[in-house]
Amino acid sequence: MTASTQRLASAQRIASVPRLASARLWALLLLACAAAGLAGCSGTQAGASAYHAQDISGIMPPLAFHLTGPGGRPITEQFLHGKVAIIYFGYTHCPDECPTTLARLSSTLRLLGPAANQVRVLFVSVDPQRDTPAVLAQYAHYFAPQVVGASGSDAELTAMTKRYRVAYRRDPPDAHGNYDVYHSSAVFVFDAEGRARLLVPDTETPPQLAEDLSSLAAG
Amino acid sequence: MTLLRWLLPWDFSVTVLTCCLAFVVLYARGVHASRQRGAAVPARWQQSIFYIGMLLIYIPLQTRYDYYAQHMFWMHRLQHFLLHDFASLLVALTFPWPMLGAGLPTAWHAPLRRVWQSAPVRALYAFVTQPLIAFTLFVGLIYLWLWPSVHFRAMLSLREYKCMNWSVAVDGLLFWALILDPRSKAEGAAMHMGPRIFLALATMVPETIIGAYLSLHHGVVYTVYEICGRLWPVDAVTDQQLGGLIVWIPASMMCSFAALIVMRRWVQHDALARSRAPMPAARAVAATMDLTALAGEP
Question: In principle, which of A216, B25, B46, B151 could form an S-S bond with B42, CB 3.0–4.6 Å?
Fold first, then answer.
């Protein structure tokens, strides 16, 4: 290395010292911002929330769908307007998860007493071939008067499940025509104006959910 | 018909389509224009790598693959591996920027050069190419989107989901463009070759840590896939472990791959610099011997 390049290198080293210091400062600042953001996020998720369920206000789109409801009549979000709406995706041949969830929801409605009239449960079947409006009506009848069954074409179901980012899939039928259906376990709650509000985990008990629904109905 | 179902966008985005198409069209135009001018163009294989890279950015963002990535954790990690580590590395590896520039309409050259050389753009470029910032952004984005509560929201909110995928793709391109710049610092690259090797290898450490944690952890960290439904019955922990393995092994492998490429280029640059410098015959012979000794080393 010649003398001139040595001088140049040392000059660069001197010039790069404040730059490195400011880079460290910026990196720290970035990390601090991220940490603050994360703290904020976990805050709304846990203790700070007014609900037992997960608050999804503002992160999911408002209620909108086109399905076939009771009596084979078309049904849209208008049907649920003014009520606190609970949406759940499943199918009537479901051996365990759907009846359990719907039973939990109907005990919640019983706990609410007369206030249950402010709530509707929309059970959306992702198995329209087997779940005709008649089958759905009979199935809903087992649980509570506020439970309404609906289904639709694959295009309609895809549009709705895509909107709420849930998955469903039907396996091809076996020799006896039986097939498995995969669906989400999500229970969405929308307020009277159709805004997405809560995502209910399956660990939430009926008394907790009743509390959540009352405070939603109250405002 | 099935193929079409696979290739049609799950969530159509005009921005993704426009950006990907613009990159491909500009590159093709740039190669064509340079060839007509008699200027140097990238070799066929380099061009192919560029197009493959762009395709591997487009596929996870716009085809039905996106639906799978939304509902299986390991497929989501594979999506980010492509966007953040693999496809963006392929694109940056071909150093496509001169061709993209040459592909722009001539009338845009002067105004765009003015924007590129304007103080705010230079300052932003200088900022994001500082090693510590580049490291923090690259690793920070992996940790940010894998933070359980942030991940939960991102998988539910379409806006945050798009923001997540865009951020990892853009940062991947930025980072690999910084590391894999074929020029030396004297020729205009933002960093010296040596620190770039160190930077690439340094990112392996946090990637390995989070990847190993997810592959070896037995509790479910990401509950959102359970709630929104998986596409086929895979156990939640298995899904999570597979996703962790993708972060752990292939993602950190790309870092060492990049480091190897920079090492090779470093040696080549040195050889070139020595052959250009006027030196006595004896020293030139010594230098060549030096190089063969270097190349002979594993």
Answer: B46
